[in-house]
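FORM 7B: Structural annotation worksheet

SECTION A. Query
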Amino acid sequence: MNLTPRLSAVADLAGKSLSLADIGTDHAYIPIYLMQKGLISTAVAADINEGPLERADKNIRKAGLSDKIALRLSDGLDNIKDNEAETVVIAGMGGEIISHMLEKPKPLGIKKMVLQPMTDIPLVRRKLHENGMIITAERLAAEKDKIYTVIACEYGTGQVFSDEDYIVSPFIKDDPIFAEYINKQLGICKTNLEKTKNAEDKSFSAQFEYLISIYEKFI
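SECTION B. Predicted structure
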């Protein structure tokens, strides 16, 4: 199975583990790929809706992995059992949704999480630290006209980030496409600043001005 650059980055950071839970699995591409590569032994493909699970089921059956990958209707990690997954993948969701999941009780046995938020990435980094986890690696992935951020984390304390670090993580500064990422973020912020600078609520434009000041340090 060939993965998109975004999912390839997720799979690379997930790596090898005994068991995996893919939350918001959609087509179950991640567990199928990792199983085919011999990197996991068992997996749970979970989603909050029946439709994605039906798509996942078709792909799992086609790959001949129905005895290795279980399907699970689950709101986040709610229906993942204790010691069922060493690695948890949550990819393709908004940062606020992922942050809410991080705040909730988690099943026992999780050693690593790989997160790919579509929005609010600084919020996700901050919530990790607030909920007893540290970042171990990050990866940028360019796909079509977007650049995605993938974050690997594990339980731990003592990792200190500044406000700037939550916006531009130390873990992405050596990434091959870091410069492209910064330029893209600058472009987004400048566009949004133009849209909000005449609004009555000045907090929006002030936020974009602050972000621009941070990103411009890396040009």
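SECTION C. Observations
The CA atoms of residues 196 and 205 lie 5 Å apart. The mean pLDDT is 96.

SECTION D. Sign-off
Analyst initials: ____
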